[in-house]
Amino acid sequence: MKSLILLAGCGLGDGSCIEEAVLTYLALEKYNCPYQIVAADIQVASINHISENAEGERNVLVESARIGRGTIKNLNSVHAEVFDCLIIPGGIGLLNNYRDNSAVRELVMSFFEHHKPIATMCAGIDFLRRILGDDVLRKEYETLMPDSYCRDQDRNLFYTPAFRMTRSLCDVRKGIDRMITNLVLK
Question: Closest by alpha carbon to 104, among 82, 80, 83, 69?
Answer without folding.
Answer: 80
